[in-house]
Amino acid sequence: MVARRRTRKAAALAAAAVMMIGGVTGCAKKDTGGTTASGVALVKSGVLTTCTHLPYAPFQSKDQTGKVVGFDVALIDLVATKLGVTQAIVDTPFEGIKSGSDLNSGKCDVAAAGMTITDERKKVLDFSEPYFDATQALSVVTGHEVKTLEELKGKRLGVQGGTTGEEYINAQVKEKNLGITVVSYKDLAAVQQALSTNQIAAAVGDLPVWNEYVKANPGKIVVAAGFNTGEQYGFAVKKGNAELQKAINEAIAAARTDGTYDKLYSTWIGEKPAS
Ligand code: ARG
C-alpha cells in the first residue's frame, strides 16, 4: 500500500514537473483560457469561473454534500448556460474579490459574493445591473436584546472585515461617538461563531444573511434592528470585460422577464418584499 502510494505520488510529481516545463516552453497542456461561441473570453476553457467568499448563505454556501449552492450560484448558472459552459466556484477572501485583484490576476471570470455595488468598488470592478436590494441588520443573542447602537456603548460589536457593514458601523461609531469597540472578523462564519459564544454583544451585516442564520438557528439569535442603507448587490467582472458584463445583464434581464428570477428568489431568499 505504502509503496503504491509513493509510486503514485512520484508519478504525480513527475507529471507536475512536465507541466511546469511545458508552461515555460509554451507547449503546455496548461489551460490558457478559451472563448465561447458568443465571443466571451474565459480564464479556463469550457467553464465560467466564479470567485466568492464562503459561507454567505443564502447567496452561496456548501450544502450537505459539499456542493456550493445559493441564490448567486443559481443566477450565475443561468449565465453559464447562456454561454454554453458550466460554472466552477473558487472560494477566496472577500478582500481580493472587492479590490479587483482576483479578477485582474485571472483567478476567475466573475465575482458573485453578495457584493454591494459601491462607488469605490466601481473604480476597480465593472458591475452588472443590480440583482438584489439589501440593508444592514443588527443581530443579538436571544435574551440580550438591544434595539439601538446607542445601547451598545462600551460593548463589542462584530462585523465581517472589508464589508459595507463594517464601513457603515465604523462611520456611525465615529459620527455619533458611540463608544463601541468594532471587531472585524475574516468571514461570516467567524462573526456568527463570535456572536453565538458571546464574544461580542452584537453583530452587524447584510439582513438576508442574518435572516438565514436566524432560520437555521431558531431561538438563539434574533435580528433586533435594521438600518436602511439602500444597498444593491451586483456581480462583477474585470474592468473592461464588456462582453461578459453584457452576457450577465442579459441573463438577469431574461430571468426577470420569464419568472425564473422570482422562482429563485422564493427558493433561496423567501417572500419578496412588495416594491
Ligand atoms: N454586501 C456586503 C459587501 O459588499 C458583504 C458581502 C460579503 N460577501 C461574502 N461573500 N462574504 O460588503
Short description:
With 275 residues, this protein is an alpha/beta fold.
General form:
globular
Bound ligand species: arginine
- Count the beta strands: 14
How widely separated are the two ends?
63 Å
Q: What would you call the quaternary organization?
A: single chain
* Residues in helix, %: 25-40%
Question: What proportion strand?
Answer: 15-25%
Biggest sheet, open or closed, and with what strands and sense?
Answer: 5 strands, mixed
Radius of gyration: 21 Å
Mean pLDDT metric: 91
Which key terms come to mind for this protein?
binds arginine, five-stranded mixed β-sheet, 24% strand, 275 residues, single chain
Secondary-structure map with pairings?
Elements: H1 2-25, E1 34-35, E2 41-42, E3 47-52, E4 61-62, E5 68-69, H2 71-83, E6 86-91, H3 94-98, H4 101-104, E7 110-111, H5 119-122, E8 125-127, E9 132-141, E10 156-160, H6 164-175, E11 181-185, H7 188-196, E12 202-206, H8 207-216, E13 221-233, E14 236-238, H9 242-258, H10 260-268
Parallel strand pairs: 3-6, 3-7, 10-11, 10-12
Antiparallel strand pairs: 1-2, 4-5, 7-14, 8-14, 9-12, 9-13
Helix pairs in contact: 2-9
Bound molecules: arginine (ARG).
